[in-house]
User: Fold this.
Amino acid sequence: MNPVLTELGGYPLAAYQDLKRELAADGTPLHDFSIGDPIEPTPQFIRDALVDGLPEVSQYPTAVGLHELRQAIAGWIERRFKIGVDPDREVLPTAGSKEAIFHLPLGVLDPRGERTSVLWGTPGYPVYERGFRFAGGISDPVALRPENGWRLELGEIDRPRLDRTCVAWLNYPHNPTGAVVDGDFYADALQAARVHGIVLASDECYVDIHPPAADPPGSLLQAAGDDRSGVLVAFSLSKRSGMTGYRCGALVGDPDLIAAQRLLRPNIGTASPEFVQRAGAAAWADDVHVAQRREIFDQKRTILLEFAAEAGLQVSGSQATFYVWLAAPGGDDLAYARALLAERVVVSPGRAFGDAGRGWLRLALVPSADGCRAAVDAWAAAIAAGRLPGHD
Ligand SMILES: Cc1ncc(COP(=O)(O)O)c(C=O)c1O
Assistant:
């Protein structure tokens, strides 16, 4: 067996799925905030585009993807960030952002060279590390802190460490904390990455999921302007358009880095089927459904944040994404999550996202608004009855 498999252990959230299944076995519904997979239907026009895209003869999709899809992605980037990108050289469709993140090092990492590590923030999405480890690289996690808004500050990292770095991954809006950053943050990160010859990669799969009244989060692409050298950004339709099951995303940025991925990817064979790509093109071309989804998540976010304020629970980040990030009263995230399970409320203990997540709880805004209300009622009743601590 590949030793990396045993070293990394199981996928960290898999244990929660098992626990949930055990609990759900008695048939009583659970209030499940643990897995970031929304339940809102995929808009009808996207489903129609998929069905209309079904060919009589189905052949292999190409790694470069349909021009129609690349153009739709470039069109969204233009509308959303006021940036023009070349759909032929700077846009690469992917089968969701996860596989793109996982496979990226296979196109940029020389495991026999000097620069073999990946910098990534913890608590964080584990795939930045996992992709590198499986590609023969080294994981170099950086502990993020609430005091500075969970920002991964490349400027604070010492030089020898930066000189060993092949790729630095940013992820804002951030999973699991929901923290956001501004344009200055990206400009500083880009400057530091360029000084040290690091590829700066930015996972922006939640960039469209923000409170409707807030300024939309920006992109690393905006900070890079016309010079996209050393920059790659991952986008996704999963959360933006309710398409987690379709597997449709994109890498956008430096044409040389995109060219390396194009060279790599026919070896892997992960391109989305062309009928999925046609549905993806329809989704990227429309912003109305995304605004509707933002309203739905905002309603749920508000229910949870109001409850947190009433119960005196400390909230951090939670400015965008569909995650709410709370300090676990008493400080033990696992103990608190287990106690909440007894109330049939399922949350993720922060340690599932790395050691720096200890003491925190992540709630994914997956249950319906009514489900959110029922869950906070159950939670509040447990606090009132003394079965759970409210605040420290
Ligand atoms: C931070 C982050 N990046 C990437 C992904 C992968 O998303 P997808 O592969 O569905 O685009 C997720 C999924 O939850 C995520 O939280």
The pocket of pyridoxal-5'-phosphate is lined by residues 36, 96-98, 125, 171, 175, 203, 205, 236, 238, 244, 249 (CB under 6 Å). The two ends are 46 Å apart (CA to CA).
